[in-house]
Design goal:
By secondary structure, the protein is of the alpha+beta class. It contains 11 helices and 12 strands. Helix 8 runs antiparallel to helix 9. The protein is globular and about 60 Å long. The chain starts with a helix and ends with a strand.
Length: 380
């Protein structure tokens, strides 16, 4: 059953429009986005579709093929704090758009969400949902929303409606993804450029290992990392940690407590790794990227302390199988790893990871080749 028939089954009529948007994997650049730094994500081929139809009133109703029931409210009553769980994301996007753009006279809509992006796996199922909803609502409401407006609506939904203090990386990746390419985003200026990955000519693939551990970005640990960075920026007298360079680290070490300094060191060195990765990719030196990925993971493990034993095990097993590099991808505290490896070594990688997890008495991760794909689009 496709999204058209699913919508008809839920609402008794055909949808007027449908938009889809992909999840994303982050090649490198973790927890740098809310520090005004640099990130290098790419869209994945797994997508979320949102089918939508106009109503004759001001009510917005959201339903999902993955969850029973639905949520409904008049758009004038959609405010932060009025919804929890998955409905908060689409309702939050509608609220965010309504804060900055006038809506038509009867703006009511019915939405049906159908997603193949795994929730909580570090692949930003939330951004895929937000950008598909934003595209569908903009189409129904006759709004010409530029990429920054769409991305900002998703971020405001997460920050102000859901309560997750995330940056804007995921939304830009979901909107701007292209096949066999990553999106280099400057999170301060919001300037972007497409960076070719050239995986095929190099004989390489990217492999995801989903550990099955699930995280929640609204939980305290993520918020604590962001608060620590903001505190450090104030202590150092800079607008954001983006303004600290690697050469500054020896000088500032004595200005911060030990834990805060480690948080800063991760962000500063991660920004440098992102830039080095972009230089390597644009020079066609794809095989040299692996060492930056591995260094990123170790920084997240030791300085930012956002990995888990399962994520660490997946990375070490991948490296033992001959991977060029591997790291946790996503916000941390669970989710997936991403590995750069010769395509011929994928069976060895799979065996090494599965054996390591079996020896640790952990359930085997779901291992799959991840393919960079296109960004958000109208489907019908």
């Amino acid at each position: 059953m496709d999204w058209t028939s699913r919508f008809a089954a839920a609402y008794g009529r055909a949808p007027d429009v449908a938009w889809s948007a992909p999840g994303r994997a982050n090649l490198i650049g973790e927890h740098t986005d809310y520090n005004d730094g640099f990130v290098l994500p790419f869209a994945i081929t797994e997508r979320t579709v949102v089918a939508a139809a106009r109503r004759g009133d001001d009510t917005i109703t959201v339903a999902s093929t993955a969850y029973p029931g639905s949520a409904s409210a008049g758009l004038g009553r959609v405010v932060p704090g009025m919804a929890a769980g998955w409905p908060a994301y689409p309702l939050g996007v509608a609220w965010a758009i309504a804060q900055v753009r006038p809506l038509p006279d009867s703006p009511g809509v019915d939405l049906l969400i159908d997603s193949e992006v795994p929730a909580g796996g570090g692949l930003s199922s939330s951004a895929a949902l937000e950008m598909a909803v934003a595209g569908a609502l903009a189409s129904l409401w006759g709004l010409d929303l530029a990429v920054p407006e769409l991305a900002r609506a998703g971020q405001r939904a997460e920050n102000d409606f859901v309560g997750a203090p995330t940056g804007v990386m995921d939304q830009y990746a979901s909107l701007l993804g292209q096949p066999d390419a990553a999106v280099f985003l400057d999170c301060r200026t919001l300037e972007t450029r497409t960076v070719p990955l050239r995986l095929g000519p190099a004989g390489l693939v990217l492999v995801l290992a989903d550990t099955g551990e699930r995280h929640a970005h609204a939980a305290g640990a993520y918020a604590a990392r962001r608060a620590s960075c903001e505190k450090a920026a104030r202590q150092l007298g800079v607008p954001a940690l983006r303004d600290v360079q690697t050469a500054d680290l020896p000088r500032i070490e004595g200005m911060l407590d030990e834990e805060t300094f480690r948080r800063v060191r991760h962000v500063v060195t991660e920004n440098a790794r992102v830039q080095a990765t972009v230089v390597a990719l644009e020079a066609g030196a794809t095989k040299t990227v692996g060492r930056h990925l591995t260094a990123s993971h170790r920084s997240m493990r030791d300085d930012y302390e956002i990995t888990t034993p399962a994520l660490d095990l997946a990375v070490e097993a991948a490296l033992s199988a001959g991977a060029l590099g591997a790291r946790m991808t996503g916000g941390g505290f669970g989710g997936s790893t991403i590995t750069l490896i010769d395509a011929r070594r994928v069976p060895a990688l799979r065996a090494a990871v599965e054996d390591a997890f079996a020896a640790a008495r952990l359930a085997a991760p779901r291992i799959s080749i991840v393919t960079p794909g296109p960004g958000a689009r109208r489907e019908g």
